[in-house]
Amino acid sequence: MTTTRTARELAEAYFTAWEAGDFDTLRGLLAENVDFVGALGTASGVEAALAGLKGLGQVLEKIDMKVRVAEGDDVITWFDLHTSVAPPTPTANWMHVDDGKVTRIRVTFDPRMLLAGFERPS
């Protein structure tokens, strides 16, 4: 018997996998045609979305989840994004799920400190 995860469960698995750098698990959660729009860019398709998650994953230290609200196939997660290049960044992430996979992700935050951190010489 196959059990389909709820949108909330998918969101929890997504953030756990991303924080752990488990991109194989992330791939399994995303639809092939996942559509991502965020403050640092856009991505169409699973490969482009994973590339973006891996890129930010290089500086990701911790995801400090504050609240997650789910209604039907939609989930909004509010968290502080902790990175090695900037102070914690308050972030909102909205996901939409179809047929047990994440199909749409929208992320918003103030990117100024992250961008400044990326520009600092190593």
TrEMBL record:
Gene3D superfamilies: 3.10.450.50. It comes from the Bacteria. GO terms for molecular function: isomerase activity. Pfam families: SnoaL_2 (PF12680). Residues 11-105 form the SnoaL-like domain. The keyword Isomerase applies. The keyword NAD does not apply. This is Ketosteroid isomerase-like protein. Keywords: Isomerase.
